[in-house]
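Final report, Chapter 2: Outcomes

The project's central promise was a pipeline that accepts a single protein chain and returns its three-dimensional structure in a standardized token representation, suitable for archiving and comparison. That pipeline is now operational. To close this chapter, we reproduce one record exactly as it appears in the project archive, with the input sequence first and the structure output second.
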Amino acid sequence: MVRKSEFEERLALYRRKHQVQGKRAAYLNEARKFRRWVMGIIIVVFVAPSLIIFVLMLRETGIRTALNVVVFNGKDWTEVSIYLIVFLVYWLLRYVLKRNEKALQMLVEQMSDSDFDLLLKVKDSVSLDSKYSPPFVLCNHRLYLFSSFGIREIDPAKITDINCNWGWGSNRKSVFVRIKLLKKTIGIVMLEKAFPYFEKVVEKYTKLKI
């Protein structure tokens, strides 16, 4: 079992205290629409066809016969495994998107105007699929690092070193950043276009020149 970070534990207890207005409300509304749009595409392209095929197979053979076939026929078990993997990927992606949306709601409520301006600049610098899944968020002098595996909260003033591997990912347009702190190292992947904003944050709170 993966242990939640301290921030994720606070996030689990978070309840919206007040309604944000203006650009902040518009940003959060767009983030919500983006999540629904992504999940809608996944349902139409992957989940729905798999579910239809699986239901038709059950109707044609019956539940008991289908279970016997799955248990004793390796080929059919492989097919069922594919369906299960599709649903698992769907559930995990849905969880990550909802978690990130809730985290953005919490942070946008609390951040300063300058922090929110930075969030908008990062959004405008990246492609559509990354606009509402930021690699990092600055909020009240704390840096939040987003990944599929969790959200880490760090003090940017405690960063001791940064190492970058450019040309990361299948499209070679991302950078893998190793962030060294006093007692640990954290890795994060972000698009190269978002890195200059991360660089400015690090240089603002430390004496490092990346």
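Archive annotation: Residues 6-11+20-205 form a domain with the PH-domain like fold (CATH 2.30.29.30).
This record, like all others produced under the grant, will remain available to the consortium after the project formally closes.
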